[in-house]
Amino acid sequence: MTHGTRVLRHNQGVVVAVVACVLIFCVQQSIAYTPFSYFEWSSVVTNAGPLVFATMGLTIVMILRGLDMSCGTTLALVNIFVVMNPAETVTGQIGLCAAGIALGGAVGAVNGYFIAFLRLQPVVVTLATMFVLMGGNLLLMPTPGGQVPTGIVATFTYDWVRDILPGAAVVIVAGLLVWYLVKMSRFGTALYATGSNEAAAFANGIAVVRTKFAGYVLAGLFYGVGGVFLAAQTNTGDPLIGSNMLLQIFTAAILGGVSLGGGRGDLLGAVFAALTLVLISSALLNLGVSSDWTSMVEAALLLAAAIGGSLGHIRSIRSTMGGLMPRRGARQSRPQGAVRPARAIPELVGSRSTAWFRRNRQALQLVVPAWSLLLVVLLLVVLVLGSRNISVDYLDALLTLSVFLVILGLGQGAVVMMGGLDLSIPFTMTFAAVFLTTFADGSNMAMIWAVPLTLLIGAAVGLCNGLLITVAQLNPIIVTLATNGVMQSAGLLYTGGFVQARTPTMLVGLFQYRFLGFAPAVWIVFAFVALGLWLLHASSFGRKVLFAGSNARVAHLSGIAVEKTTVLVYVLSGTCAALAGILLAGFSRRATLDMGESFLLPSIAAVLIGGTLASGGRGHYLGILGGCLVLVAVGTLVSGAALPVALRDVVYGVLMLAAVLALRERR
In whole angstroms, what is the distance from residue 621 CA to residue 197 CA? Predict the structure, then answer.
């Protein structure tokens, strides 16, 4: 193999990104009403600027075999920081840009510390950071507003050489030059080596921990540039502007040729991938396609790029489908070769209560911390709001508000126990609520048919997630993030962007009436908890989930159909999301196109606070129930004390990170 062939093969992701950009550009020009001009070139580069730098940062994290869910909120933080600190002089504006970039680096340093030094999972850490930043951004700037200094706007969005050289292109090229200086250094070599094989890199004398930490700091610095660019582009501050960019950023990173397995990728591919997404948006606009299709197109590109990048690892459909069925002759109720535990003899082990505590010691270790934390929160409610607030009515409100998280906790908990994560919950919930209300339109009789159909839709969404994860061997984060985008577009297209239907009165009555002192929804909580305990801890399905999540290979060799269990877990999560959406429509008495967005992070936080191990293989539904009640109790405390609602997200993130720290596996 020649040197040129090796270089081409090593950079095939970048080549594909460049070719895709050129092809999309040709398509866009073939349908454009006017020939390509300098104005269009400048507009494309300027519009792509923030996405380019966000994708660059995420690409560095993915080279290290990580995922960063906080990239969008970091951009928003830097954006509002620039707006809130006006600078009149040139020196002041240069200092403001430097401070904004440093702020992004500081966020990366926080992520890097927990990931590199404390060895926590990147997804969990960056989700917690995303929580804290979302709430913190809203505390700093509750509503969009402000203005960016003119010099910063001119530097990033105006021409440096009139009608020849846009400033955005200069900034992007400068970012690439910085990257190539880093790439050619010893640190760059260490970065790729650590992402490719951490153990081998350590054996060869590379400071793996420091390399990972520095990599996250470098990614944060690129996010900082993206945040300053975003401020210059929008000329205003918006605390939530980065949240909607997450799908775009991940799509551009995967399309840019970075490997989910780490150790491969280049920031040049990220640049062309970001430009490709902007050109696609322009092409859709020229074709008169509704913007409601945008999320679906981005999700399709994300899945296509992820599948293309993992073609060498995809099993044949025949072999995978074989894995969806149990091995012939294998006992599915108990792993093959497992020994039935001998019945304890009370005279030898002590009293029955002692024996019970010994048998259930591990479960208690998972369950007790969440319930102890709940007692602490309830004590704070008494101290802050007064003892009169702890009453039957408070208990009814607490359990009623927790019904959604309790249901989501079962599905999300099962997914996390398998070592995955379901990010498709928000818009699966939303679509379920929208579909039910529009199908029934206030009719209780129609609701009898609408509810099963809605649950089937949720199960179908979970089935698609499970099959893509098992058959195509894709990362669960990528799959469910893409599915969430598909469901977002599906809701917009199904309703035309506006929901006018009414919620059936029977569904509203679950939260309006009382039965034995409690709303009917509370009794649903009790029934669902009983179902969840049986499903996860008394059935063969629950044992398979825990065993497969602990060690999938050993579970497979023991006769468990791991792929089938994985698919069923995601079907369960999709069904739970649909059921939660149905009940949310009843609670809200109407459906909106964003009503499920606020439930993603709490559903994950409740599972982790409830003692479930983020890497899978350990967890208990009673602990998850305690985590759900803790989050709802914190929400009622914040509301009752008249504190900013955004503070709740900050508390959620801190609790989530604290729970993961307390339960982390020490090596």
Answer: 35
Kindly give, in sequence order, each residue whose CB lies less than 8 Å from that of residue 428, ignoring residues fewer than 6 positions away.
458, 461, 483, 484, 487, 574, 577, 578, 581, 596
Task: Give the best-scoring range by mean pLDDT among 179-183, 395-399, 643-647.
Answer: 179-183
Nearest to 257 by CA among 96, 492, 18, 446: 18
pLDDT score at 367: 85
As a whole number, mean pLDDT of residues 597-608 equals: 90
Burial of 97 (0-12, 13-18, 19+ CB in 10 A): buried
Residues 6+ apart with CB under 8 A from 498: none
CB 153 within 8 A of CB 229: no
Choose among 92, 64, 308, 328: nearest CA to 198: 64
Q: Using 50, 70 and 90 to split pLDDT, how confident is the model at 289?
A: confident
Tokens 């894995």 locate to 323
Distance CA 190, CA 179 (A): 14
- Taking alpha carbons only, the member of 246, 223, 233 closest to residue 45 is 233
- Under a CB-based contact definition with an 8 Å cutoff, are residues 573 and 579 in contact? no
Q: Could you tell me the two tokens for 553?
A: 């290979």
If you average pLDDT over residues 14-19, what whole number do you get? 83
Which stretch, 178-182, 348-352, 523-527, 587-591, has highest mean pLDDT? 178-182
- Per the DSSP assignment, residues forming a β-bridge with 161 are 165
The tokens describing 203, both together, are 């054996």
Distance CA 194, CA 171 (A): 29
Q: What type of residue sits at position 340?
A: R
Give the three-state DSSP class for 82. helix
C-alpha separations of 227 from 96, 155, 661 in Å: 12, 14, 29
Token pair of 514 as six digits = 């009382």
Tokens 């509203």 -> residue: 508
Q: Which value, to the nearest 10 degrees, does the dihedral of the CA atoms of residues 366, 368, 369, 372 take?
A: 160
| Radius of gyration over every alpha carbon of the chain, rounded to an integer in angstroms | 26
SS (H, E, C) 118-163: CCCCHHHHHHHHHHHHHHHHHHHCCCCECCCCHHHHHHHHCEEECC
Longest Cα–Cα distance of the chain, Å, equals: 92
CA–CA gap between residue 402 and residue 633 (Å, rounded):
9
The DSSP code sequence of 54-71 is HHHHHHHHHHTT---TTH
Q: Which amino acid is at 587?
A: F
To which residue do tokens 């799908």 refer? Answer: 247
Distance between CA atoms of 374 and 395, rounded to whole angstroms? 13
What is the length of the chain? 667
> At 6, is the pLDDT very low, low, confident or very high (cuts 50, 70, 90)?
low
Distance CA 409, CA 620 (A): 11
pTM: 0.86
- Burial (0-12, 13-18, 19+ Cβ within 10 Å), 333: exposed
Report the Cα 215 to chain-centroid distance in Å: 21
Lowest mean pLDDT among 33-42, 156-165, 471-480, 583-592: 33-42
**Percentages helix, strand, coil for the chain, rounded to the nearest 5?**
75, 0, 25
- Identify the band that residue 657 occupies on the pLDDT scale cut at 50, 70 and 90: confident
Q: What are phi and psi of 166, to 5 degrees?
A: -75, 145
Amino acid (1-letter code) at residue 551: N
